[in-house]
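Q: Give me the 3D complex with 5-phosphoarabinonic acid.
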Amino acid sequence: MINFKSYAENFISEPDYLEKLETAKTLMSRLQQDPMSGWVDLPIDYDKPEFARIKTAAKKIQQDSKYLVCIGIGGSYLGHKAVIETLGENSPTKILYAGNSLSPLELSKIIDQLGDADFSVNIISKSGTTTEPAIAFRIFKQKLIEKYGKAAASKRIYATTDASKGALHSESVENGYEMFVIPDNIGGRYSVLTAVGLLSIAVAGIDIDKLMDGAEEERATLISDGGNAAEYAALRNVLLDHNFNIEILANFEPSFLYFNEWWKQLFGESEGKNGQGIYPASVIDSTDLHSMGQYIQDGRRNLFETFVKIREYISDIDVPVMETNLDDLRYLEGKGLNYINEQAQAATRAAHLSGGVPVLEITMPDISARSLGALIYFFEMSCALSGFLLGVDPFNQPGVEAYKNNMFHLLGKPGHK
Ligand code: PA5
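A: Here is the predicted complex, encoded as structure tokens.
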């Protein structure tokens, strides 16, 4: 279960917060009725036969492929990359990511890494028409056909897309790719616990049952009145009312780098519209205390920080005991790095609070699939409620179209002026 604690009481008024919290709780019924709220009940109401098919496909890929090239962008890749990087891979098949930029340099690196090795492709696109993944898919499809022939190549392509429409859907049907579905009522950035994320995560050797169990447990604690996700959503909005319009997610584990990226997309794309929103930023500490620490401590006072804390670790490394003390580390001898990291986090929290940065804190039990499933669900729920409180639709992304239209015009795509 995810715990939430606020250290922001000196920056806000309690009555304002309580009023916002009451509103957040009432928004739960609106959320349940929203046509894009398919993710809310997903942990208890997912497609079980498809889930079993994902596991079977993952086993086959582990047996016949040294690499799985996962092609997707935004909500179609950040979630599974976040889970896989945070928990680490435990599989004979290594996951590679393509189609999340237009850089030939990045594509070349992946092609070089593949070399002559056996590989499969996991193409994920809800619309089935997004340019970046579509181009990468064409390139890797051609490589598969060159290597295995058309029929065998089709058996190495796994497509996750809309159930009935889009270019990727038609192509998959025509070529007989194994297909998985992105449900209509779940948007890209809320889709990590669907086939969008689960196939790659399962191939990486991560227990997707545990991931879903964690989300299910978290759902049970939040579903009646939003629980502490409503508290977090309310506090974010009260802080915004006090002009704290940048939120920094601060993790003290480098493996959470892509979790931070997923979180930024979730909140940024959900809330940044109609001239509104809290700008989501992130740091990995203590690394970034030596780069961004100065600004957070002492720069413009429009930031608040949300720390992610891990309650228990399964492994540790102690500072060695030595005869000499030339490095002045005697006071740390025999102490575990987890303990030292925890003190660094407490020290940072106190320093930033005294520097005028409101701090919120989210604690997860440990770094495991179950806890990560819970954390994902917690943030999805917080984000939806926070977006409603802000007065925006947390499930659309009209702003993403602007660059696309300009790009299509510049590239001469028919029908784009
Ligand atoms: O969250 C979203 O909706 C977006 O980030 C999409 O996931 C992203 O634009 C990719 O879209 P698609 O899956 O249609 O290729």
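A quick observation: Residues 73-76, 125-127, 130, 133, 187-189, 269, 397, 400 surround 5-phosphoarabinonic acid (CB under 6 Å).
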